[in-house]
Amino acid sequence: MARKKTAESKAAEAVYSKEQVLKSKTYSHFRDVYSITLADDAMYTKTDLDKIRDDFLGRPVVDDKN
Asked: Structural domain boundaries of the chain?
């Protein structure tokens, strides 16, 4: 029964395009992250956006030395 509830809640979750995300006040602090990581023709849920942001910000910083 738990599987059915999670599937239903995921199906009911709203989806957003890249353009909608970039215009959103909710994600305005991470606009630069989303502008380079989101595909133009894909749709994303809030859960997807949070995971993309966390994955991007969790990557190690590479210090390139000459």
From this structure: 12-57
